[in-house]
Prior knowledge:
- The complex is a heterodimer.
- Chain A is about 10% helix and about 40% strand.
- Chain A has two helices and 19 strands.
- Chain A is globular.
- By secondary structure, chain B is an alpha+beta fold.
- Chain B has helices at about 1-20, 35-65, 80-110, 165-170, 250-265, and strands at about 120-130, 130-135, 175, 180, 185-190, 195-200, 205-210, 215-220, 225-230, 245-250.
- Chain B has a five-stranded mixed beta sheet with strand order 3-2-1-5-8. Chain B has a three-stranded mixed beta sheet with strand order 4-10-9. A two-stranded antiparallel ribbon of chain B has the order 6-7.
- In chain B, strand 1 (about 120-130) and strand 2 form a beta hairpin.
- In chain B, helix 1 (about 1-20) runs antiparallel to helix 2.
- The termini of chain B are far apart.
- The interface of A and B includes residues 53 and 171 of A.
Amino acid sequence: MQKRTFPILAIALLVSSAASTKAGRFTATSAANGTVEGVINFTGTPPKMRPIDMAKEPTCAKQHATPVMTEAVTTDEGNTLKDVVVYVSAGDQGGTATEAVTYDQKGCQYIPHVAVLEANQPMDIYNHDQTSHNIHPMSKANPEWNKSQPPGSPPIHVTYAKPEFIPVKCNVHPWMHGYFAVLGTSHHAVSGNDGRFSLKGLPPGKYTLTAWQEKFGTQTQEVTVTSGGTAKANFTFKATPY
Amino acid sequence: MGKLFAIIVTIITIVSTAIFMSHHWMPPDFSQLGVGIDHQLAETMVTSGILFVAAQLVLATFVWRFADNNDQRKIKIFPGGATPMVVGAIILVGAEILALTLVGSKIWASIYVAPADPHSLKIDVQAEQFAYYFRYAGPDGKFGALHPELIDPSTGNFMGLDPANDTAARDDIVTATLAVPVNTPVVLELHAKDVSHAFYVPELRIQQDFVPGLVIPLHFTATRLTKSEIVCTQLCGLGHYNMRAYLEVLSADDFKKWLNDQSGQ
């Protein structure tokens, strides 16, 4: 009986030590069920969002009943900011996702405006328009490329190995603009229309959170996550009109 | 055989001329200078058309008359050989082209040499791969300076204005459609962001290249309320086929309202 128990215990120990390696400095026994929630605010006057005139591309223009606005700074009532990437910048062990992220070109817009993917996570880029696009992510740490994608083309498959915020433009439609946020963590969120975000499934421990906004830069703060608990982390960016 | 050839040449000449003359090739113009340009074009077409028909018919006549001539007579040659004939032809054709140039230079100069009306509405035009952007000075009547390093399409700053430091730039209105008031002289200042492009509105009868590094003025007065396409006619890259914008000619009131709507955005 004792002889049998020993190998089982040994396996259990091995598994738990593997889990603890993955979860960093946190105890292996605790469940990854902590949450960080918050809202992204700004103070000051943000730049005006401007309507985009797509008249030169009728197939895109007719898809929008009201003009699409620029998305560099998308605000909402209560001075909240959309499309802010919040992620664990320290205290975490890197991304593991293998499911492909979808990035769409539709109505001559990038959807979503900011796509988050983990390092080496695959991404499929689609053209759902009846016009050619030429997607050009202007990466610096990763190899740069730009590819033409006529209507009806199969998706372009890409991965990025190094964490980086990559501005994306279309070489055909000057107004098209987006971002790839390549992160070295599996805990990340993008603030929604109401400026809220939620990071789920965090093992208890201390983390450094970073919030990134394409015009206003980054902010960081420390949070402590308890098992099953919800930590609050709000960020406030200083906005300037120009 | 020679007679058959003469008949075919005559038929081709008459049919092609008839087809050409039965169709009006130019879109209706709405430019103040359009009438003059169309007149000049017609003059050129009629002159060269008459010469074309005459030359073909002379050719047919000679073939009819002499092609089947097998009477072994010595072939007569042009007095003095080929040289005086070639020289004569060059002088004749050259004189024709020179005459057309002299006659046509007045209307050409009225577009490309004559300065714009000093009270013209000034519009700054930027061509880039693969779109046009138009800038109006706004209520202060002044254009802000351009700073290419500040160009940022993500915020709609396509031209590189510096509203933070440059008060003249704050009320500048940048649009993707060119609207102009009817019967008002307009002067465009064309500049390119990247490579060579062109501004062509067939109905205005004007066509002008954008050349990177140069600011090229181009003036016109639109005379009819209409909407037409501005197309790029200088191969500028992958999306050239799709590079266009729209020109809208509005009444003075509608233009004011349109401009106001654009600035309110």
